[in-house]
Amino acid sequence: MSSEKVSKRIAAFAAIAAGLMVATSSAQAADQVSLRLNTILNGWHCPWHMARDKGWFKEAGIEIKEIGEGRGSADTAQLVAAGTDTFGLVDPAVVIAGVARGLPVKSVYSLINKSLLAVVSPADKPIKSVADLKGKQYVTLAGSGALQMFQAVLAANNLKPDDVKILTVDPAAQYATLMSGQVDAILIGLDGVPDLEARGFKYHAVTYPELGVNTISSSVATKSDLVESNPDLVKRFIAVTQRAWDHAIKNPDDVVKACLAVKPTSSEAAFRKQLTDVIGALRSENNKDKPLGFGAEKDWQMTLQVQKDYRGIKTDKPLTAFYTNEFVPQ
Question: What's domain 27-113+218-321's architecture?
Answer without folding.
Answer: 3-Layer(aba) Sandwich (3.40)
